[in-house]
Amino acid sequence: MVLRFIEEKTDRLVASQASGEFANDTLGHIGRVQALLVYSVIRLFDGDIRQRHLAEQYLPVLQDWTQQMLEHTSQAASDGTLLLCNALTNYTPQLTSDFPIPYPISPEQLLWHAWILSESVRRTWYISMFVLSGYELLKTGTGPCHGSMKLTTRRGVWDATTASAWTKLCAERSIGFAHRNDTEKFMTERRMDEVDEFTLALMEVDFGPEGMERWQLANEC
What we know:
Helix content: 55-70%
Shape: flat
Radius of gyration: 20 Å
Strand content: under 5%
């Protein structure tokens, strides 16, 4: 019953996007990728053969949407809409140098909000690529490498609850903007409690539980 409900929700989601019925902004792109991700993970790994087969049909859609999310965000960062047209402003910038930003919104709030969106895109991309390559690896014994991208690795930055707290963290020290491929050196250059939890999860995939335990024990010495 639950799986049939998820099947219907997935079909409606994909159909609505095909007809253009979604918010074509950064948050809209993130939302549809994350929704399809959740539905896909449930259906692929629940154990129901029919649902797994049906979910496989939507994996190319997941890959396409993830790529479109990246392309949209890159364009939004280039033309300023990531910063100026968001949930804080509800404002579409025109060809003018006089942007009517509402008074209560500070520049640091705009920057913080834009960073949250861009970091959400990066993290969503990683999870999507993990699902796509991981499932293929489990199914065939080999999985494609979709590359890597930089993300924020310093603990506390993602957890900041206000723009001022986020700005203070960024000003005090590096946010650790690094590629996943560069994380091995963290084990010799950083303490585990300095690294963001999302990054630690990625590292455990790469280095395994034993590698992470050795790092933790080294920190305690």
